[in-house]
Amino acid sequence: MKRLSFFILMALLTVSCSDSDDEIDPENPDLVGTWLLIEQYSDPGDGSGEYREVDSEKSIEFLEDGIFKSNGELCDLTIETGTNTSGTYVMNDTIVTQFSEENYLMPEECDIEDFKVYYHIEEGSLILSFPCIEGCGQKYEKK
Questions:
Q1: How many domains does the chain have?
Q2: Is residue 100 part of a domain?
Q3: Considering the domain boundaries, does residue 5 fall inside one?
Q4: Which domain covers residue 138, as residue numbers?
Q5: Phi/psi at 22 (nearest 5 deg)?
Q6: What is the CATH number of the domain that holds 104?
Q7: Virtual CA dihedral for 78, 81, 103, 142, nearest 10 degrees?
Q8: What mean pLDDT do residues 11-31 have?
Q9: pLDDT, tens digit, for every residue of 33-46?
Q10: Beta-bridge mates of residue 8
Q11: Is 85 within the bounds of a domain?
Q12: SS3 content of the chain, % helix, strand, coil (to 5)
């Protein structure tokens, strides 16, 4: 009987394991990892702004210890790379469900003290919201 139970348990473990560990759930992706910039949003002040595709290699890597690294500036809205940026990030449980001022990045290299870039995940994309007079932001997808 013990042998049969062991084989059933092994069969269940084998069936439950799959190659899907590398797949990203578009509704609830893990923040840790590397994200690539795909679109940028800017609004001229009349509410007509929209996300537009960008040609950029800018990326952000989130580490498990609350540190992030980017190959581009995060103190302002730019698609350029070449200026390495790092800092800390804070995440709470509303990352997927809604925008929250409790989810933010704090780049170390900014001229403004306690500068924050807010973020959330929407439909599998990482959305960064920069402090702008008019609406602006960036959209990233997980690599």
A1: 1
A2: yes
A3: no
A4: 22-142
A5: -85, -10
A6: 2.40.128
A7: 120
A8: 47
A9: 999 999 999 888 88
A10: none
A11: yes
A12: 15, 35, 50
